[in-house]
Every structure is written in C-alpha cells, then in structure tokens.
Amino acid sequence: MTTDWQALRIEGIYRQPHEGFAMQRIKLPAGLLSAEQAHGVAAIAGEFARSELHLTTRGSIEFHWVSTENLGKVKSRLAALGLTSRGACGGAVRGVTCAGRGGVGFPLMETVARRLQQQFTGNPRFERLPKKFKIGIFTQECDRSHLIQDVGLVAKPGDQGSSNYDVWIGGGLGREPQAGFLLEERVTQGRLIPLIEAVLQVYGAHAAAGKRLKHVVRELGEERLRELIMAEPSATEELSPPAGLPDSFLPGDPAPALEAPLFAGELSADTLARLAEFSRIHGGGWMVVTPDQNITFRIPGDVEAASQELLRLGFGGMEKEEQVSFRICPGSHECRMGLTPTRDVARQVIAAMGTVAGALRWAISGCLNSCAQPQLADQGIAVSGLVKGDDGSRSPRFDLYRLPSEGLGLPAARNLTLEELLAQVRELG
Ligand code: SF4
Predict the structure, then answer these.
(1) Which of 35, 319, 386, 387 has its CA 20 to 30 A from that of 189?
(2) Which atom of ligand 1 is nearest to the CA of 367?
(3) Does domain 324-427 have CATH number 2.170.16.10?
(4) Higher-confidence residue: 248 or 310?
C-alpha cells in the first residue's frame, strides 16, 4: 500500500530520506513533559524508533526511524500518555514554544501555552491553513525569538502577578527571512485567544496556498493587515478569566533550575528514562524541553543533592560539544531536505573554536529552511547549496550569519566551502 505522506503531515509526520521510515513529532505545550510521560516516550522510542530521540528547536520531541506500519501504534501510545502530535506538521497551528527554560515567569507562560494549544489543536477551523502557523511566548524581547513567529507574545509583568502581552505578528525565517511587527501593545490575557483567532481568520482568507503570514504582510503592508485584523469581530473580544485550579504544574518561583545539556538535542531512550526518574525524585515530576534542545528541571527541594545526582547521570563534567550553545537541525542525517550531515559539521566547527568563539551562541541548519534559526544566533550557519566538483561529487556551501545590534542575523559571508567556514571560525579566536 502506498503512503499518502501529504495527508500524514497533519499528524506531525514527515517522510524520511530512508525508504519506509518516517519522522513523528510530538507537540508539547511550552516544552512540558511529566515524568510519567517521559517514561512512556522513552518506551515508545525503545520499541519503535531505534531507542533514539531528537529534541527540536521549538521545545518538542521527534522520533526518527519509525516504520510506516507502526505509525498507528505510536499515535495510540502517545494518546494513552495524554500527548498529541496533531498539527505538529502541515498547515496547522504548531506546538506553542516558550522561552524561559522553566525560569522566573514560566508558570504564567505555561498556563497560556496550554490554553493556546487546547484551543488550536485538533480544531478543524485551524487545520486547513495555507501553511504552518507558529506561536511563541517569551518573557523578554532581548533574545528576539518573538520576531520569527507568526504570532510572538512578549509578556509584560502587570499588577497582582498577572501579565499583559505585546503581540508581534508576521515573522518567519526560511528562504525569505522577515522580522515580525508589533500589532498591539499590552494585550490582556483574556484577549489573546480571540485576537489570535482574528489573525488566523485574516491569514486564511488572504494567503495563497503554501504561503505564510509574512507573505500577506509583504503583499498588503502592515497597516492594511492591522486594519483587516482589527475589523474581525473577535479582535477586541475579552474572555473572562477561567475558573478552577491553576493550569501550571512546574514547581513555581523561586525554585531554582538545573539543566541537562544535550549535543544537537540527541538522546537515547535510556537517558530520557533516567532523566524522567530524576524529575520524579528531584524536579516535582516535571521537565521542560527547551528551544535550545536541552532539558531543564525546577528543583523545589535540595538543589545540591539534585546537582550531584545530575553529575552522577553524566550531565556535569561535560565534553566541549555539550558546553557550546549550538542549535542543530537534523540535516541530511534524517531530513529529506538536508544538504549536509549537520551534526558532523557542527563537531568540526566546535573542534575549530577557540575560547572566544566557544562563548558565543551558534546554530546550523542543513538547508535554507533555517529550522535551527541561524538568524537568531551570534554565529549562524545555513547550507546554501551543493556544488558539483570535477570528479562528480557534490560538496556543500555555507552561508554565515551574524547578529546585528537589532533585528535578525544577516549574511556576513556566502557560499563558503567547509574549509573556508572553519577558517572563519578560527579567526574568531
Ligand atoms: S533546516 Fe532544512 S535540513 Fe534542517 S530540519 Fe529544516 S528542512 Fe531539514
């Protein structure tokens, strides 16, 4: 039986470059995973995904190497854990990403992320969008991640522990990077869902198939788009605050955070199971997959004992690879679009780094789709193409991005060979 890969996208499934195998992405609100869910995810990886897992640059988890005949079983097992992959790929509202790594202000963002995911996941109104639609929530503007979302929410602390949000829209990377613009300042929490519904309504009505919101911004202009959105009936609607118990489950402020750093977001099922046990004993039963492809824990109890345990698990005297902040997409290791094995190149780049370069934030994407967000790193690398040599072999060319004082990273050099790229890295010292 042939596989309808296009139809499977809405289930968070992409075809791998290896015949008969698929990538299955899970949608975690704000990257949150309970200890029980992490144990279950580790078991699924052990049974169906060669005991390997990949943490994404939006704080989600991917299984690679899932045989197409096992996709239904994986879906059923995820559902039994209370997890979903619905809308993790395709023309849908993707997993809501959240900065903050479980730090101060995270409980409020966790609450908002859960509500947004509940509202927009599995809802037929938001599943036939022209292309993907990304929402992110951030505590501050300085890391600039809000600029690359279709809707980026920047929390502004308000009275009595509440927050308002600056709402940025129309950002995105890919082959035509574009920074989002500020739609409205200090939007109350009760207006977020109706306002995002209004943005989605206008997006669905005005974008051509396959185009993101940033293209509508280019075609209509910021002011016209703002007028259209604010003319939607839901744009000014305010929902009453939900009654009941809080939706945030991560141990709250001021519990300190500990991090388990992982090279390229790669970990084995066994490692995840051990980290799940760590979170059950030391982390209040929860963990956070961060957009930096690491796992953090809030520690409500004895931090020293927790640190020692994390060291014992091998997350301490780290190798240089894990010490460098380096976002890395799967590249040609597992992605059909990938033009080079990104992890291998990243290892060579790290080996070429001196102390100064090692203190910077790095990212590498295996093609110009820019999934590792090279335009947000101090030094970002994207593979721009393959060049055929005299012997018929193809070698990659790299664009190098550097972060200016504001906005997105810009190309500092284009079409570098690997040797030229490594020479630039060495020059940084
Ligand atoms: S940047 Fe390209 S190679 Fe990397 S995950 Fe995205 S599509 Fe695949």
Answers:
(1) 35
(2) 2
(3) no
(4) 310
Residue 337 Cα to ligand 1 midpoint, Å, equals 6
Q: Does pLDDT of 113 surpass 80? A: yes
Torsion of CA 142, 146, 148, 150, to 10 degrees: -170
- Cβ count within 10 A of residue 241: 9
What CATH superfamily classification does 103-236 receive? Sulfite Reductase Hemoprotein, domain 1 (3.30.413.10)
Instruction: For residue 385, count other CB atoms closer than 10 A to its CB.
Output: 13
Mean pLDDT of the chain: 92
CB 179 within 8 A of CB 135: no
Residue percentage of the chain with pLDDT more than 70: 95
Question: Does residue 86 carry a pLDDT above 60?
Answer: yes
- Count of CB atoms situated within 10 Å of the CB of 287: 27
pLDDT of residue 101: 63
CA distances from 272 to 269, 277, 313 (A): 5, 9, 11
380 lines ligand 1 (CB under 6 A): no
Q: CATH 3.90.480.10 occupies which residues in the chain?
A: 5-90+259-318
CATH fold of 5-90+259-318: Sulfite Reductase Hemoprotein; domain 2 (3.90.480)
Q: Is pLDDT above 70 for 318?
A: no
Pairing of strands 52-55, 61-67: antiparallel
Q: Which atom of ligand 1 is nearest to the CA of 338?
A: 3
* 174 Cβ closer than 6 Å to some ligand 1 atom: no
Q: Regarding predicted confidence, which is higher, 136 or 3?
A: 136
Amino acid at 188: T
Residue nearest to atom 6 of ligand 1 (CA): 371
In the chain, list all ranges with CATH 3.30.413.10: 103-236, 324-427
Most confident range (mean pLDDT) of 8-17, 104-113, 254-263, 311-320 is: 8-17
Q: What is the pLDDT of residue 252?
A: 73
pLDDT of res. 99: 79
Amino acid 104: pLDDT: 64
| Six-digit token string for 65 | 């190497």
